[in-house]
Design goal:
Elements lengths: L1 H37 L1 H10 L2 E6 L4 H7 L7 E7 L5 H11 L1 E4 L14 E5 L7 E5 L5 H11 L4 E6 L2 E3 L3 H9 L9 E7 L8 E6 H6 L8 H8 L2 E11 L9 H23 L2 H32 L7 H15 L1
Parallel strand pairs: 1-2, 1-6, 2-5, 8-10
Antiparallel strand pairs: 3-4, 4-5, 6-9, 7-10, 8-9
Length: 331
């Protein structure tokens, strides 16, 4: 029981330390973003140099396209890859709403493209950012590769249909890209909201030339594989959000505390059955330590989230209730 106590306390200390480090990185990234945003001249220079092509696979409705066209960043385009064989009316509605006309698909000599793609652009100036590609859907990686081929700009942001960029995502990405004065990063990855500590979901901005040099996106998780293949760094703030439902048990921090708390809980019942009150008391203290660490981690995580979202001014009672609810969920 002694060694079990030492092991659990060590894991709890490491967990709390990692949460503190993650919170400090997030708050530092937030301060940095505000500082860069205040440098209007610097931001304008970076924006005038860098164009971004957002490639979206699996769009199902016009509303998803409208949300992506609403960004205030002026030098970007949205490339939507659809499959008219799955929804025959979708392409017809898009052509009618955006006045799309078919244009020649560029000669493919950079990446291998299958699926008989057809390229559409709008005749209306207000929709000049929109590019629609109709092709037989094979995989998400193939759709993104098709978008890379027709992209007009040097930076690529591949997205699934259920992920959307935050309003300030593109300016923040570009300012981070030009912070050092040179574009040394082939990829800049960022988190996806709603965020959790130890969450591995990512969105990323890739250099088009680097993606082509790697042979394009491949595999079941093409974004993750491409991030690992290129030089870059991770931004500690979310630049996109997901509309897909995410079950609470998928929170890695909660699973970790459940695993740590399971051992002393089992030991407690075993010692109670054996009537070993000393062992039961030690197991009970371990359970209290696990919950106390969960409470502290939840407090740090919650405070960090409120600072990021600008909700520091909420009432104390409401904040306490949210903290207790969050700590019970983590535990």
């Amino acid at each position: 029981m002694y060694w079990l106590s030492i092991l659990i306390l060590t894991l709890l200390a490491l967990t709390l330390l990692s949460v503190v480090v993650a919170s400090l990185r997030t708050l530092a990234a937030l301060r940095k973003g505000r500082m860069l945003a205040s440098c209007h001249g610097y931001g304008s220079e970076a924006m005038s140099q860098t164009g971004v092509s957002v490639v979206v696979s699996g769009v199902r409705s016009e509303r998803e396209i409208e949300q992506r066209l609403s960004s205030e960043y002026w030098r970007y385009e949205v490339i939507v890859v659809v499959d008219s064989t799955l929804d025959a009316q979708l392409l017809h509605r898009l052509c009618h709403k955006y006045s799309l006309i078919r244009v020649n698909f560029p000669t493919v000599d950079e990446l291998s493209i299958d699926g008989a793609p057809r390229l559409y652009r709008s005749r209306q100036r207000r929709y000049r950012r929109l590019v629609v590609v109709d092709r037989l859907h094979r995989s998400r990686a193939d759709d993104w590769n098709c978008g890379v081929v027709v992209a007009s700009f040097d930076r690529i942001v591949p997205l699934e249909s259920d992920r959307f960029l935050l309003p300030d995502a593109l300016p923040r990405w570009v300012m981070e890209l030009h912070e050092s004065g040179e574009c040394r990063n082939e990829v800049l990855a960022a988190q996806v909201a709603p965020t959790h500590f130890f969450d591995r979901r990512r969105v990323a901005m890739f250099a088009r030339s680097a993606v082509i040099a790697e042979g394009g996106f491949v595999g079941e998780h093409p974004r993750v594989k491409m991030i690992r293949s290129l030089r870059g760094r991770l931004l500690s703030l979310p630049l996109a959000y997901s509309t897909a439902y995410r079950h609470r048990s998928e929170n890695p921090l909660r699973r970790l505390f459940l695993g740590i708390g399971l051992a002393p809980t089992v030991a407690l019942f075993v010692e109670l059955v054996r009537r070993d009150w000393e062992g039961a008391r030690e197991a009970l203290l371990l359970i209290v330590a696990v919950y106390a660490t969960a409470l502290a981690s939840s407090s740090i995580a919650l405070r960090t989230r409120l600072v990021v979202r600008g909700e520091q001014g909420e009432e104390r009672i409401k904040s306490l209730r949210r903290l207790l609810r969050c700590s019970f969920r983590v535990y």
